[in-house]
Amino acid sequence: MTQAEELFERERAPLVHHAYRMLGTMTDAEDVVQDAFVRWHRTGHEHVRDPHAFLRATVTHLALDRLRAQKRARETYVGPWLPEPILVDESAVPEHVITIAEDVSFAFLLALERLSPLERAAFLLHDALDVPFSEVAQTLERSEESVRRLASRARRAIRETSPRRVEPPPAADELRARFTSAVLSGDMAQLTAILTEDVTLISDGGGKKPAAIKPLHGADHVGRFLIGVTRKGAAQAEVRPAAINGLPGFLLVADGALDGLWALETRGEKIAAIYVTRNPEKLASVAKAAALPIG
What we know:
54% of the residues lie in helices and 16% in strands. It is α+β, with helices and mostly antiparallel strands. Helix 1 packs parallel to helix 3 (51-74), helix 2 (26-42) packs across helix 3 and helix 6 crosses helix 8.
């Protein structure tokens, strides 16, 4: 491996993380970073004064191009859209898992999704990566005043959507077990007792797997939907506990293949949001990490 390749590999993980938050899909993030590697390899990188800034700018540009194309495709997406989930090592120290959850929580990624591509880039570069506005302006080929406005609008929009700070439940494993037991047994009273009154369920099937076509709200509505889904066959799947984007959740494995996953956002000792991913195209990263085929 050459010195230039070694330098890039040291930067690969943070670049993938940045691209994932830009795009909301790990598959695209990894593709973008690999494209950046090709550009890095073709560039006279020995003359690059700041390789870290160069690579970050390259990934940002490539992600912006892909994000604009995604925006058009998502206009015709069937049902609610969720970011592509990622599997997190549950054996990691709790503080590390919480940090990951705050960086890539579904609530935060969905808030980013409401921004324009340039707002998203300006906000992530400055607010998330602490890049000076002078460099953000150069990267986005805008004036410094312009990128300040972009970041400010993004910051305000994200604050208004109020993605909650991730707080681990006092007993995440116990809450997840109670939830699973209630859903599989069809115990409506037990289930609604651990849901907040304003709980939300978002189910992403992408038109390829059965899913709720609109977000569901309220403990009674969500509870009845979950028990109805179980009665239609979900109870036959094997339930494997997992941390999804830093949230407690589980994988559904049917006939040895990954059929979907659920992530539970908590508030205190109750569940405030449930994110269900069934679209097979969204399961590639998790299936790879879990060493499972996709059903």
